[in-house]
Amino acid sequence: MKKLLILTTFLVASLFSYSQFYLGYSEASVRRQIQQQTNGNAFVVSSTYNGNRKALQWVQEMGNSIVYFNDQNISVLHAILIHKHIALKSVIEVLNENYVQITDTEWKAYIGSSIYEVTLQYNELKKQHVLFFAFSK
């Protein structure tokens, strides 16, 4: 149990270690940052177009990540589908420690001159929690 707690803490901390979520970047930049962050161990699962929106999806230890791009190929939304083996409580603790809590499921991040919104939702169909990172409106 202690090993699981240490592993969970490490995985959650690695996601938030430098507030890395992919907003405001080109697709090439996101791909490059993913490879740098994971020492080349991440792989892109899919790169799809949905109308005018392109999405880039990859697998990481914490869960599947999906980044959506606008018409100018700039990332505007980052979603993380949290795997069941990660303790949700640890994720929430990290969010509470590093961001400004707005509600039980919403946080704001103030990084440089940008403001980001973080939202935690439960996907009833997939029975898993999803974190959304987006620019503040």
Intertermini distance: 41 Å
- Per DSSP, the total helix count is 3
- Number of DSSP strand runs: 8
Uncertain ranges: 1-19
Strand content: 35-45%
Q: Structural class of the secondary structure composition?
A: alpha+beta
Q: Reading side by side through the largest sheet, how are the strands ordered?
A: 1-2-3-4-8-7-6-5
H/E topology pattern: HHEEEEHEEEE
Helix content: 25-40%
Biggest sheet record: 8 strands, antiparallel
What kind of assembly state do the chains in view correspond to? Answer: single chain
The global form is: globular
| Nearest-integer average pLDDT | 79
Instruction: Indicate the radius of gyration in whole angstroms.
Output: 15 Å
Task: Give an overview of the whole structure.
This protein is α+β, with helices and mostly antiparallel strands and 137 residues long. Helices cover 27% and strands 42% of the residues. The protein contains 3 helices and 8 strands. The protein has an 8-stranded antiparallel beta sheet, covered by helices on one side. Helix 1 (2-16) crosses helix 3 (88-98). The termini are far apart.
SSE map:
Layout: H1 2-16, H2 27-37, E1 43-50, E2 53-59, E3 63-69, E4 75-82, H3 88-98, E5 100-103, E6 106-111, E7 114-123, E8 128-135
Antiparallel strand pairs: 1-2, 2-3, 3-4, 4-8, 5-6, 6-7, 7-8
Helix pairs in contact: 1-3
